[in-house]
From TrEMBL, chain A:
<dbReference type="InterPro" id="IPR005651">
    <property type="entry name" value="Trm112-like"/>
</dbReference>
<dbReference type="Pfam" id="PF03966">
    <property type="entry name" value="Trm112p"/>
</dbReference>
<protein>
    <recommendedName>
        <fullName>Protein preY, mitochondrial</fullName>
    </recommendedName>
</protein>
<feature type="region of interest" description="Disordered">
    <location>
        <begin position="13"/>
        <end position="35"/>
    </location>
</feature>
<comment type="similarity">
    <text>Belongs to the PREY family.</text>
</comment>
Automatic annotation (TrEMBL), chain B:
<dbReference type="InterPro" id="IPR029063">
    <property type="entry name" value="SAM-dependent_MTases_sf"/>
</dbReference>
<dbReference type="InterPro" id="IPR004033">
    <property type="entry name" value="UbiE/COQ5_MeTrFase"/>
</dbReference>
<feature type="region of interest" description="Disordered">
    <location>
        <begin position="41"/>
        <end position="100"/>
    </location>
</feature>
<comment type="function">
    <text>Methyltransferase required for the conversion of 2-polyprenyl-6-methoxy-1,4-benzoquinol (DDMQH2) to 2-polyprenyl-3-methyl-6-methoxy-1,4-benzoquinol (DMQH2).</text>
</comment>
<protein>
    <recommendedName>
        <fullName>2-methoxy-6-polyprenyl-1,4-benzoquinol methylase, mitochondrial</fullName>
        <ecNumber>2.1.1.201</ecNumber>
    </recommendedName>
</protein>
<comment type="pathway">
    <text>Cofactor biosynthesis; ubiquinone biosynthesis.</text>
</comment>
<keyword id="KW-0999">Mitochondrion inner membrane</keyword>
<feature type="binding site">
    <location>
        <position position="113"/>
    </location>
    <ligand>
        <name>S-adenosyl-L-methionine</name>
    </ligand>
</feature>
<keyword id="KW-0489">Methyltransferase</keyword>
Length: 99, 269
């Protein structure tokens, strides 16, 4: 119980992760029904890990960091740039696929 | 097993009521004061980092749902601007400043929080109020911000940093994303300075608050945890030193209500 006194973000993340895991299929489903991502935001955003510019992948509704090969979901038009929620892209040729 | 997630789920539900009960409404004054201290100038680019904690997000979530004045800080700042119909008259000065700045002066607020439902609710509320510009919503971790270097004039975080895993990292990131001349401001629980008052406050915290939590929210443990986490956070001087460590200068703090809370401020020079 003692450790619960320290309320830590990563613990919360770990516990809530199962509820909103980053799955490209979900993301694409949502993109059709929910708010579109405002691409003009891109100029104000960077990858939280590499701090490099991101690219919007419309098909998967993801923000892609080509430098690291990771993709971040967009949910209800809001980019989720939490590193733990990123998806590794297996290779550049598979960027568009969920794999 | 009582998980952290459950703790905050429980706290969130009756958060407004509990906040008022615990602080006798003072938390609202703190927040107003915080906003007036910041008093943004026209054209300000503000980052409101909620701290990436379950705690604050839950709070925001419930507060926004109920439409009551936000008790926690800076996200409030951003929320206030759009939600002009907020019923907290006492803070109208700060709110009006923000609204004006957002509406007419090309200011921009970026709300960054680690919790998605909180952002969804905030965004929907802002849209309902007709605010489509001047505010951006990004899900992110305050320890690893998704923004370029030197991209903001002001950074606010309120009742959020206490719950971050690595507080120094949060401060380093704040420093990175601020421009030269940019200001860091934090509202957080702190240490009551007067020893006599502190012992009274401790008694109140440990003996009254959990009981109140039990009575009002039917939840003893959550409130005991909150009380404990406040005690674990560095005191005024300790936190000021951490802020300086990240590179901030002209670091000052101001005690609110005998030090129950404090506003820390620093500049990137």
């Amino acid at each position: 119980m003692q450790r619960l006194f320290a309320l830590r973000a990563h613990q919360y993340r770990a516990m809530s992760k199962s509820q909103n895991q980053h799955n490209p299929e979900d993301a694409s489903d949502k993109s059709s029904s929910a708010v579109q991502f405002d691409e003009s935001m891109l100029q104000h955003l960077v990858c939280p890990l590499s701090k490099k510019n991101l690219r919007y992948d419309k098909q998967n509704n993801e923000l892609v960091c080509d430098a690291l090969g990771v993709a971040y979901p967009v949910i209800n038009g809001i980019p989720n740039l939490v590193p733990e929620d990123a998806r590794m892209l297996k290779s550049h040729s598979e960027k568009g696929d969920e794999s | 097993m009582y998980t952290v997630y459950e703790v905050f789920e429980n706290v969130a539900k009756k958060y407004d009521l509990m906040n008022d009960a615990m602080s006798i409404g003072v938390h609202r004054l703190w927040k107003d004061h915080f906003m007036q201290r910041l008093s943004p100038t026209p054209g300000t680019k503000l980052l409101d980092a909620a701290g990436g904690t379950a705690h604050k997000q839950s709070l925001h979530n419930s507060e926004r749902e109920t439409g009551t004045p936000v008790s926690t800080s800076s996200t409030d700042a951003t929320d206030e601007s759009p939600s002009s119909s907020s019923d907290d008259e006492s803070s109208s000065t700060g709110k009006n400043e923000w609204r004006k700045a957002l509406d007419e002066q090309g200011s921009h607020v970026t709300v960054c929080d680690i919790n998605q439902p909180m952002l969804d609710v905030g965004k929907q509320k802002a849209l309902r109020k007709g605010y489509k510009t001047g505010i951006s919503w990004v899900q992110g971790n305050a320890e690893s911000l998704p923004f370029p270097d030197a991209s903001f004039d002001a950074y606010t975080i309120a009742f959020g940093i206490r719950n971050c895993t690595n507080v120094q990292k949060v401060l380093d990131e704040a420093y990175r994303v601020l421009r030269r001349g940019g200001r860091f401001m934090c509202l957080e629980f702190s240490q009551v300075t007067n020893p006599v008052l502190r012992s009274l406050y401790d008694s109140y915290s440990f003996q009254v608050i959990p009981v109140m939590g039990q009575v009002i929210a039917n939840d003893w443990k959550s409130y005991q945890y909150l009380v404990e986490s406040i005690r674990q956070f560095p005191n005024q001087e300790g936190f000021a030193a951490m802020i300086r460590n990240s590179g901030f200068r002209m670091v000052t703090y101001e005690n609110l209500t005998f030090g129950v809370a404090a506003i820390h401020s620093g500049f990137k020079l």
